[in-house]
Amino acid sequence: MSAPTPRPSVLFVCVHNAGRSQMGAAFLSHLAGDRVEVRSAGSAPAGTVNPAVVEAMKEVGIDISAETPKILTTDAVRLSDVVITMGCGDTCPVFPGKRYLDWRLPDPAGQGVEAVRPIRDETERRVRALLAGLAVSPTA
Question: What CA–CA distances, in Å, run from 11 to 20, 61, 72, 77, 114?
């Protein structure tokens, strides 16, 4: 009998951890369940998650209203297999052997839900492609 395969770990990073990285983490958690370890953080976290992002995610059946922005730590990066940066620039620590992806998505800060929807939809598309690359089938 073979040993179980360790589940992949993904970290989403943006500046405020209030929009893009929260959406990425929420979609990955929703679509992968417990088959992927999911983290999100920000280099300069905001006080709360962007309300327009919370509303846009609610429209697709994902409730992130209880989430709070978290500070980026070197441990979070070290413990992750894949690090997805979303506009954190050079503030994201780089460790050898990690897979880094830079998702250039518009910042939803200060935007209404109308402007957040296309960012949300593109984030979901990229998360689904990421799952395929990790050989994890989406649950939804």
Answer: 12, 22, 10, 7, 27
